[in-house]
Write a structure and sequence with these properties.
17 strands; Immunoglobulin-like
Length: 269
């Protein structure tokens, strides 16, 4: 009788521990789902209707508070643009327009209304000719690019090295060094110059000495240096799409330095 009572109490304790274990696993499962839901496409069943559709999407962001710098969408159905398909970004439809670059050549492109505002995330969808709606691609970019530690002196001297520094940033990052100039023969207007060079950053913290020789031109006076840090993120695409489909988001942060004698860069450029 004593032995039966002992077995019964042991069974009760074991069941309590089992319930606690199930509850813990359930909590863990919920946490995992919550963590992943922001970056992955939901489980999508195989759908042959998307097999011939390819997407190439580029989103550019220079940290304007309201708008993206660039939304470039190229979607092909069987190698061609299909005006019977509707493409949407966050439920807002693109318009497929045809324009002429000259008298003989025309081209088509997807355009979004100018009133489209920045969002925390971006969902691209397609409505096919049969009225079925499908996810194309999704991305939720990082929010803290402007908060990262990029540094350049406010002013620089012709006789000293100019150092661009960064600390605890995302890698890889591409650094582009560009110049602003005065022409020696006409020194009234400062011009931005697209000429520059790239430096690939692979370390989260470091520095780069601006190579003035790569920027030098005998007809110019360099009066400003722009350091542009750009980083790319890749979004998720529907696995049913044609191989090679992709979504890229690029964020660019620019910092500036002015030649000594200018109060600040923004006062003169």
């Amino acid at each position: 009788m004593v032995k039966s009572k002992y077995l019964y109490e042991s069974l009760i304790i074991a069941m309590k521990h089992f319930k606690i274990l199930l509850l813990f696993l359930g909590i863990q499962s919920c946490d995992t789902t919550e963590t992943k839901k922001d970056w992955y496409l939901p489980n999508i069943e195989k759908d042959e209707r998307l097999a011939n559709i390819s997407v190439n999407i580029f989103l550019g962001d220079d940290n304007d508070p309201d708008r993206l710098t660039n939304i470039d969408l190229r979607t092909l159905d069987g190698g061609l643009m299909n005006n019977k398909n509707t493409i949407l970004l966050n439920n807002q439809p693109f318009e497929l327009v045809t324009r002429k670059s000259n008298f003989y050549i025309s081209y088509s492109q997807y355009e979004l209304d100018d009133n489209f505002l920045k969002n925390e995330d971006y969902l691209f969808e397609i409505i096919l000719e049969d009225s079925s709606r499908h996810t194309l691609a999704y991305i939720k970019p990082r929010k803290d690019y402007q908060d990262l530690n990029y540094n350049i002196p406010e002013n620089f001297s012709k006789n000293e090295k100019l150092e661009v520094k960064w600390e605890d940033i995302y890698t890889p990052t591409r650094l582009k060094i560009q110049k602003d100039i005065l022409y020696k023969e006409y020194q009234k207007t400062i011009y931005p110059n697209m000429h520059g060079y790239y430096h690939e950053i692979t370390e989260k913290s470091g520095s780069h000495s601006v190579d003035m020789m790569k920027l030098k031109d005998s007809s110019e006076i360099i009066v400003g240096i722009r350091a542009n840090f750009s980083t790319e993120e890749r979004g998720k695409v529907n696995p049913n799409l044609k191989a090679g489909s992709r979504l890229f988001y690029r964020n660019a942060v620019e910092i500036k330095s002015a030649l000594e004698g200018f109060k600040s860069y923004d006062d003169n450029f």
